[in-house]
Design goal:
- There is one protein chain.
- The chain is mainly beta and 295 residues long.
- It is 8% helix and 45% strand.
- The protein is built from four helices and 22 strands.
- A seven-stranded mixed β-sheet has the order 1-20-17-22-15-13-14. Strands 2-3-4-11-6-9-12 form a seven-stranded antiparallel β-sheet, with no helix packed on it.
- Helix 3 links the parallel strand 13 and strand 14.
- It is globular, with a radius of gyration of 19 Å.
- The N and C termini lie far apart (39 Å).
Length: 295
C-alpha cells in the first residue's frame, strides 16, 4: 500500500462517530461591492438563509477582500465578540476618536494588522471603530469572525496577538480560548483578562480557535475542546475552514474522506472534548486551515 493510501486508511479509522457536512464555497453568500469582495458562511447583511444563522457560538465567518485605500467607515458593535484574522495585506483599525491618516502608540486607538496578526474586539455595551486598507496598491484578504458572548452588556475592550508562522507549521496553534474566570468573572478578573490557554486571546464564549499551515501530504491534528479547557465537554461543534489563499491549489481531507477545496468549510458535530480531529493536506501546495470549536 502506498504511503498516501495508508494515510487515508488510517484517517478513515479515526473519529468514526463524527458527523461531517461540507459547506461548499459556491454555496456561501457572496457580494462584490467593488471595494469589498465578500463571502458569507452564515447569514449576514443582504445574504439571509434560515439554515445558516449560527453554529454554536459561531455567528459570522466572512472571507473578505478590501481594495487599496478603501474600507469600513466608523461603525458600532454591541454584544458580539469580533476578531479579524489577516491572510495577506494589511488592515488598519482606528477607534472612533482617531482621524484618518493619524496614529498613536495605543493599540486600542490605532492598530495596523498584517499577516499573522489577530485583532479582537469585545463589543459589549457598545464600541465604535473603523477598519481600512490604507495601502496604496495591495488588497487585504482577511477572515472576519463573530461569536455570540455568554452574556450581554460586557465592558468593551480590545486584544491582539501575533502568531508565528513556524508555530502554525508545527501543528495547530491555538489563538483564542475562553476567559479563564468564566461567565461569572468578577470585575477584577475581567480586567485581568486571563485566558484559559496562556498566550491566547480571552473570549467571552465557550469557544476555541486555532490555525495550522499543513504541508502537502501531511496531517495536523486538532484536539477538540482545546485540550479540554472548555466548559461544555460533550457535543462540541467544530467548523473547519480552508481560506482561498493559493489560487485553488490547496485541498484538505477530513476523517470521513470529505475533501475541501479553497473557500470550502465543514460542520463537524457529534464530537467531544478530547477527540482528535485529523486534517490532511492533499493539494499540490501547503494548506492553511482555521478551526472554530464551540459549544
Amino acid at each position: 500500500m502506498s504511503a498516501a493510501k495508508n494515510t487515508k486508511a488510517v484517517m478513515s479509522q479515526t473519529l468514526k462517530h463524527a458527523q461531517i457536512v461540507a459547506r461548499r464555497s459556491t454555496e456561501r453568500g457572496h457580494a462584490n461591492h467593488g471595494w469589498l469582495n465578500t463571502y458569507h458562511t452564515f447569514s449576514f447583511a443582504g445574504y439571509q438563509d434560515h439554515r445558516f444563522q449560527n453554529f454554536g457560538a459561531l455567528r459570522v465567518l466572512n472571507e473578505d477582500r478590501v481594495a487599496p485605500n478603501t474600507g469600513f467607515p466608523s461603525h458600532t458593535h454591541r454584544n458580539a465578540e469580533i476578531f479579524s484574522y489577516v491572510l495577506s495585506g494589511e488592515l488598519t483599525h482606528r477607534d472612533s476618536m482617531m482621524a484618518k491618516n493619524t496614529s498613536t502608540s495605543s493599540k486600542d486607538q490605532f492598530y495596523r494588522i498584517r499577516r499573522g496578526d489577530v485583532q479582537f474586539t469585545t463589543g459589549g455595551s457598545g464600541i465604535s471603530h473603523s477598519e481600512h486598507n490604507e495601502h496604496d496598491t495591495e488588497t487585504v484578504h482577511f477572515l472576519q469572525i463573530w461569536a455570540l458572548p455568554w452574556k450581554n452588556g460586557l465592558t468593551p475592550r480590545y486584544h491582539d496577538v501575533t502568531i508565528d508562522e513556524n508555530r502554525k507549521r508545527q501543528g495547530f496553534a491555538v489563538i483564542i480560548s475562553p476567559l479563564k474566570a468564566g461567565k461569572h468573572a468578577s470585575p477584577t478578573e475581567e480586567k485581568a483578562a486571563i485566558p484559559a490557554i496562556e498566550g491566547t486571546i480571552p473570549i467571552h464564549a465557550d469557544l476555541v480557535m486555532g490555525a495550522s499551515i499543513i504541508a502537502k501530504d501531511s496531517i495536523a491534528t486538532w484536539n477538540v475542546g482545546g485540550d479540554e479547557v472548555v466548559e461544555s465537554k460533550k457535543g462540541r461543534k467544530v467548523y473547519v475552514h480552508l481560506p482561498m489563499t493559493k489560487g485553488g491549489r490547496c485541498k484538505v481531507r477530513l476523517p470521513d474522506g470529505t475533501v475541501l477545496a479553497e473557500g470550502d468549510g465543514a460542520f463537524v458535530t457529534n464530537v467531544d472534548a478530547g477527540d482528535a480531529l485529523q486534517i490532511q493536506s492533499v493539494g499540490v501546495v501547503e494548506a492553511e486551515v482555521v478551526v472554530l470549536d464551540s459549544n
